[in-house]
Write a structure and sequence with these properties.
Low-confidence stretches: none
Bound molecules: adenosine-5'-diphosphate
Largest sheet: 7 strands, mixed
Radius of gyration: 23 Å
Number of strands: 20
Shape: globular
Mean pLDDT: 97
Structural class: alpha/beta
Helix content: 40-55%
Oligomer: single chain
């Protein structure tokens, strides 16, 4: 059914260079047919924002073939040419940051200040990998034979299939597309069904920056399973990079392994937030609030379990409760909003059920615990205490605005409990004791540890997890290596 698009979003899309109702394939805007459309709605009030094509398997296969042709040309460019182009892309993102943030909040719901921060952090990956493109140094290796010389070179791996989630519709793409394009790969991106517009805005800016046809493509679809299967099994795809749930990550990894593709997975987490008695209490409370309620609790590095040492447990709980009560919940575009809506009804339903289960199992509701009336997708910032390590709320990734509070006695105990999970993405610890900070962070089985700091993600540091939280690292000097192969050259016959 054809419906009209609200004027303000049409203006936004036009300013960004997007073609309404179309996706970006092989350098062209491909419009949706009337019968194959995917609707995009505002999670704050359910209004329809736009539609994009619901592509089928044939269209995606064709896109992969064109992307491979583009790769064969793109790989021959110099690192400097690729770096210059990424910098132009970066400049355009910076020029359009307000429109990009507005669009992001419209389709995703997060407060506008968080969207602005996401656009800036996403843009930073383009700049970083423009710089890193020129530093993919190989090695010269001392040879054991006088007549040979040994060296390595790094080469782009090939067509990259990228599958991204809705919680960071811009920056999750930036951390994959920027290093892949910098390395000399072409990218076929499948954004999440709920948030394809930010991906298309990035494509529009790529087009304006002069990224050649076929180097960056966006395949929008309402059928992630079928399209995911094509992306993960097509012989021309050499690398699959995925951010999303551990369950889907396992499926993707299984499919990609059939043709031995290189795989990066950034999956779920169950972050412990450990506060020792000697910590700066105010800093710890603010860190816990920021890491818990950012994006309404819908990030993979959100705090899931707060462990507070016995001596300061009551003081922490009281201060934390006060801060939760002060949080302003509302539409992402409303002034002063600190916590926005959740992404959709299913996400709210899952949060409701995990809280209900925890209360039935004996947890105590300190604050929150209800849906809010300002819209269908709003849930109160919530704190549960008297939580037991075996409850589902402690074992599963909550992915909603619900914090759980635990007590602990000593260092060994809290390390054991913090590590007692299948996940291993981010962990946080607060202490003023330097020795303890090192001991505990070295003992935590996590890919990233924030020490007296909750905001750990940035383009120059390696982001990623261990155990069921994934494989590979994004950002940092390691981020570009994920899109390259090492080739060893052995040069003989040297007299
Ligand atoms: P989330 O819980 O964040 O929605 P998902 O893992 O369901 O996490 O989704 C992350 C991304 O994976 C989205 O782009 C979604 O469309 C895609 N996806 C979901 N199911 C599959 C699948 N079976 N194969 C490939 N991609 C999938």
């Amino acid at each position: 059914m054809q419906q009209t698009m609200p004027d303000n979003i049409r203006d936004l899309m036009t300013r960004l260079g997007m073609a309404p109702g179309a996706t970006y394939l092989n350098g062209d805007w491909a419009a949706a047919t009337p019968t194959r459309q995917l609707q995009v709605c505002n999670p704050a009030d359910g209004t329809r924002l736009a539609h994009v094509p619901d592509l089928d398997v044939a269209a995606v296969t064709e896109t992969l073939e064109r992307a491979h042709e583009a790769f064969c040309r793109w790989r021959l460019t110099t690192a400097r040419e690729r770096a210059d182009l990424l910098l132009r892309w970066y400049d355009l993102i910076m020029q359009h940051q307000d429109d990009l943030a507005m669009l992001l909040t419209l389709e995703q719901g997060k407060p506008l200040n968080e969207s602005r921060a996401e656009i800036l952090s996403g843009a930073a990956f383009f700049r970083w990998f423009a710089e890193e493109a020129r530093r993919t140094y190989g090695e010269s290796i001392p040879s054991s034979s006088a007549s040979t010389r040994l060296m390595t070179i790094y080469q782009p791996i090939g067509v990259v299939a990228a599958i991204t989630p809705w919680n960071f519709p811009m920056s999750m793409i930036a951390r994959k597309a920027a290093p892949a394009v910098a390395a000399g790969c072409s990218v076929v991106l499948k954004p999440a069904e709920d948030t394809p517009l930010s991906a298309l805005a990035l494509a529009a800016l790529a087009e304006r920056a002069g990224v050649p046809a076929g180097v960056f493509n966006v395949v929008t679809t309402g059928n992630p399973k079928a399209i995911g299967e094509v992306l993960c099994t097509h012989p021309l795809v050499r690398k699959v990079t995925f951010t999303g749930s551990t369950a889907v990550g396992k499926t993707i990894s299984g499919l990609a392994s059939q043709s031995i593709k290189k795989v990066s997975l950034e999956l779920g987490g169950n972050a412990p937030f450990i506060v020792f008695a000697d910590a700066d209490l105010e800093l710890a409370v603010e860190g816990a609030i920021a890491t818990k309620y950012r994006n309404a609790g819908q990030t993979c590095i959100c705090t899931n379990r707060i462990y507070v040492q016995d001596e300061i447990h009551e003081a922490f709980a009281q201060r934390y409760r006060q801060r939760v009560e002060q949080l302003k919940v509302g539409g992402g575009h409303d002034e002063g909003t600190e916590v926005g809506p959740m992404i959709n009804g299913a996400a709210v339903g899952k949060t409701e059920s995990i809280v209900r289960q925890a209360l039935a199992d004996g947890a105590v509701l300190e604050v929150g615990g209800q849906r809010l009336e300002c819209g269908d997708n709003f849930y109160q910032p919530t704190l549960l205490s008297h939580v037991d390590d075996r409850m589902a709320v402690a074992r599963e990734e909550i992915f909603g605005p619900v914090a759980t509070l635990f007590r602990f006695g000593d260092e060994d105990e809290v390390i054991r409990r913090a590590n007692d999970t299948e996940y291993g993405l981010a962990a946080y610890l607060y202490t003023r004791d330097l020795g303890r900070a090192f001991r505990v962070s070295e003992a935590l089985e996590y890919g990233m540890v924030g020490i007296n700091e909750g905001m750990i993600s940035n383009e120059s540091a390696p982001f990623g997890g261990v155990k069921a939280s994934g494989l590979g690292r994004e950002g940092s000097r390691h981020g570009i290596a994920e899109y390259m192969e090492i080739k060893y050259l052995c040069i003989g016959g040297i007299q």
